[in-house]
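P.,

For your records, the input lines for the assembly:
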Amino acid sequence: MSVLTRTPQFHIARLRGRNNEGVLLGIIALLLLLIAMFSPGTLSPAMFADILRSSVVNMALALGVLLIIISGGIDVSFTAIAIFAAYSTVVLMRSIGLDNGILPFLAAAVIGALLGIINAVLVAGFKLQTLIATLGSQGIVRGALLAFVGSVYISSLPSALAQIGDARLTTIGGSAVSVLVIPVILLAVGLAVVLRKTMFGRSIYAIGGAPESARRAGIRVGRVQTVIYIAAGALSGFAGMVHVALVGHASPFELVGTELTVIAAVVIGGASDAGGRGSVQGVALGVVLLALIQNSLVRLGVPGFWHTAVVGVVILLGVAIQAQSRRRRSKRSTILESAVTA
Amino acid sequence: MTDNPVVLRARGIDKSYGGVHALADADLEIRAGEVHCLAGANGSGKSTLIKILSGVEAPDRGEIEIAGTVTSKLSVVGSISHGIQVIYQDLSLFPNLTVAENVAMTTRVAGRARIISITAARELTLTVMKRLELDIDPDALLEELSVAQRQLVAICRAIANDVRVLFMDEPTTALTWNEVGTLFQVVSALKADGVAIVFVSHKTEEVFALSDRITVLRNGKVVAVGGVAEFDRDSLVEALIGRQELEERIVSSDVHDSPVLEVNSISAPGLFAEISFTAHAGEIIGLTGLMGSGRSEVADAIFGIIPFTSGRVAVDGHDIRSGDVASAISAGIAYVPSDRLTQGIFLDQAISRNLVASSISSLANKLGWLRPKAIRAGVDKLIDELSLKVGSPDDPVSSLSGGNQQRVVIGKWLATNPRVLVLNGPTVGVDIGSKAAILQILREKAAQGITVLLISDDVPELVSVCHRVLVVRRGRLVDEIASQNVTVEAVRERSIA
Amino acid sequence: MSSASTVAPSFLARVRRTLDAAGHTGNLGLLLAGVIIVFSLLNPSIFASPLNLQSIAYAVPEIALLALAIAVTMSSGGIDLSIVATANLSALGAASVSIALMAGGVPGDAAAATGIAVALTVGVGCGLINGLLVAKLRIAPILATLATMTLFSGFAVAVTRGTPLYGLPDAILALGVQTVAIIPVSFWLLILAVVVIWAVMNRTGLGLRIILVGASPEAADYTGIRRSRVLLSTYALSGAIAALAGILMSARSASATAEYGSSYLLLAITIAVLGGTNPLGGRAPIVGVGVAAIVLQAISSGFNGLHISPYIYQILQGLILVVVLVVEVRRGRLTKWITRMMSRPPADGAALAASTGAATPLKEQPTPKPLTQGSHEHD
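Structure tokens returned:
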């Protein structure tokens, strides 16, 4: 009768979290402890403010990537979409003389959503492999930006936008915290709710975990994919605008090339490349962990040219740990167990 | 029962997949409150019919009448909202979601819900489980459960909906007797509520124990329909497999005394325990048991796909390392796996490449360069030996029929000159001509001194070629039927007992 | 008029037969011819000039090799995104060792040979790291090689402190500038590499195993192919090819740096796919990849000559990648459509009506039988 009894759940296992969130939190705590031991001076409120600031854009970008990765795909076009949306919004504002602090974020999100349609058509419509499809759209979007929208560095933003970028929410230890943290947090919380509480959110997990079962359960796989690629585009566009506002200039050559860091943060945060797993909390921890490592490398005086290599090692470790824990989870069906007790 | 209103009717359903006619002009009529058995051998079209009636696949031709409306194609959501529920053979659950989410998923999709409340899903699950007297943690991830528990979750999911017609595609395969008992109780309770249950099975015992009416499919066609009283075991078997299928038993008396394959008390935790037998040169041994009895796992373990934790397997006295396919192959074991399409063949690759896949090292020189002439000669020899009907050896193996594909898999192993040939369900989904040809190949190979281990639940096939038949039940070897005792009746009785 | 309607199908049929015989690589050859003709017509004085053709031949080898590295890993069902980083790291290895040797008084040719050996070793080493991650730790190839891409290029930045290395031995520099029979040495090297890689993929047990693992990893396991060993070799091979590309890159730019060729990854994947590689594995059209590299380089050079923005070329790359795959996905439907068009019996009435625009009602045409019916019975 063993089948009819509950599966024992250990509390330790619960602590680890569904996507190893607990483990991540532990690693972050351990890192902080190490920094406190070896370089006590650096562990300051200002450090937290710095980490927060350097995490904002990556977090906003990571939210879109998370959607795609949960659904079982991968996206490498999001940085191209982000900078296309943000840069062309700034160009547009300058050409029509619009000066507004809120509208550009919405406009960039809309442009991002429109660009997301390309990915949606390729993935949901033509059923292309997502890596190849988004590599292609990365080339198209980036090329179109540089060829048709512009390839010059815009050093000053419209004043209302520049103000938003400079506006401080608060100051921690002499380091400013931008107000743009608020919309990113709101989006993150909103997405967490969508993923956990809505049928749409659960459908994304269902598609990522078992596409054929999802089809049989009546979930319209193509439609869900369409929506997530458009939503990811919108999130990328918004994130691009956050980046432009924070740095205070618009350069069409920025962001592209940082895909890996964002994808790594999402994967380290527990999203499985095979799909069906991942959480906003995990992603937030992944983003913070990477920012913390980069930040502490600076503070611990590691020479700048070693940073990429160290980050590479961290990413590799994170990816490897997640792959191992996924392997451990999958187990074979049992025949004997029930037979012995019967 | 025949007076009950018809709740679901399919007429003239045709469906083919790339030239293979899965269903041809099939009719099905389901009445309220009946248990209807959809019987048929593997590959007879049962699963295709279910997919069409649940809206997963669109028929090429034909119409479906449900609740008074006639349509040529159902959508999945349309089918669910008409009260059709399916428990698929592969369960079609979501391993990465919780039990409660799995149970609630289809009702919420069909109800066009936008929000999923974890609490409501949990309550729904607990209610359904109470009805079935089950106790599975609704917050556990599905992947943490055993297969039997997953099967119960699938049943919970089906009846969590407002179900009027419940399809069950071989629901008893992974269940123990207790659970099958529970399932049968559920079935009678549902039946009393007026739910029609369509039960897919090719086990005659279950069919007679449960059903009111029977529809038998063979090769995509409906070959018999009627109340259960109109059938007896023989007529059902005849309808299921056709008269010509009951082949005569031809086994050679030429078995050598020398043991070739020795399986000595091997166990794998959770799968099987203390399996022992010895097979001799020229002997064909059958290994049978119900689906999920562990028979496939024993075969996988002998070939090194699954490691065994104790005991030993040896060929000609040489031990094989547990869980090491290469060691099994170098000892002379060849294995035709159960899933031809994903495990047996390389679907898009050329027939010639498939035929040489297992003997690459012997076709290359010391530096690893392939010898094209040797390859061509070997391929031609195999095609001839297996009487494969191929246009060109460079055509993809996907261009062949199932029977010819299976012969390619066997050929791939014959190229390695094996001492022991293990075959797991080699004639499943294979046409009659190919089946006879495959069995004849086994007889010929045995006559050449090869030891053959045939894993199958096709009783007439086992009787037709095997010297001995071993029976596995719930992971243990429980019976051995030898020489003149190998009859269809004996094997069927003891494998199901 | 009626003669036109009968000639056209037979001509088309002949074209189709020719194309079928030549396969995808043949199509690419036609495409290359088309590209050359179009640009030669658009820009006769420049594009078709020997100098320009030679400059194309100088540029092709490194990117073709990178695409071949992608093709090899793709045919095993994976991908190696770290190729550019591997190439740079290998080139740096070659440069630093050979420069140090020359400084120590070792003759230039010996230093160059040692450097090339070092580069190949570094390349194979990088490949083995990728192979271990993919085969032993079972990390998805995309993620594993994305991570090693950062790791290798980060390591390259760290050892060079971000500055390029100059002063390569003459023997290496010669690879970037010298010709034999008008054709650049590096292009001869590419031809040699294509032949060798083609032979490895099509004429050795390893190549066959790589393709079979790519076609179906599960079937490979059940066939007794040692999958992890095969994958290790695949990524090592990819690393070696990337190292070769790295040497050519450093030879052409007369320096080795950590940041060379950052735009090459997308291009290499595009070439591999255009060459006929299936990103899902099971196919290794080595010659096709070589031809595809020339096609894309010719387009790039043609654009350059016409002063079209390189960004337009980037768009075109993305479009080619996507369109080739969409066509691939739709090919089943396309071939069916072509077959239907071809097998349609000549209907004179229809042809007449269509060509004269007459409003006479058309006779109903007999519809051709679907190919699938009546040919032979399956199960």
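Two observations worth noting. The CA atoms of residues 348 and 396 of chain B lie 5 Å apart. The longest strand of chain B covers residues 6-17.

Regards
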